[in-house]
């Protein structure tokens, strides 16, 4: 059991005196080592002060440079890009609802007009911005509607989004392009990605149905059945569920 000695305690025996001397010596060595370590640290700092200050200066300049870039370059760039999106987006929206002038409207959306940028200009001039990312989606969908499928795939693959609808639509759009190019296996892979991207009442049954039809066409009847049955079980109120029993019958009949 440890014992504590009161202040002013004097050893009574020779053994206690020797033990006390050993303890005092050990304590002195510890403090001496600490003093030596502190002195070496101080000496190193003193001899490398310019180097240390230089590192701190580089970090400070880098931080200030980044803040200035965000404030005076990145933020205005994002704002300008978003403003430029207004013109081509109008033509894109009109094309979606136009029964007769779709091609000309999609081309205006892509290439611009009247001195205004189109989606392709925004992609080139404002690379890295959120607007340019969205422009890739819109350009891809425009090319898809213009039956330019390779261009559609190229732009839709560059689009990235966690949005439940847009992210799934982009992947499904790539699937549609591959379908039109006669590459059903690639199409099926992207329909699967569209389904996996998010679970919602709009895109999920839509691409489950397209995946099922593609699987039927490629005689993958087990896969087709699983897609159609999921629509029947999980999306009973969707448009795709209306005649789903007929497709389930075709998948079962192909087995």
UniProtKB/TrEMBL annotation:
Keywords (A to Z) from UniProt: Membrane, Transmembrane, Transmembrane helix
Keyword Transferase among record annotations: no
Transmembrane segment boundaries: 51-69
Keyword field contains Acetylation: no
Chain intervals for the UniProt region annotation (Disordered): 1-25
UniProt feature, compositional bias: Basic residues: 1-11
A Pfam family hit: TPR_6
Entry protein name: Uncharacterized protein
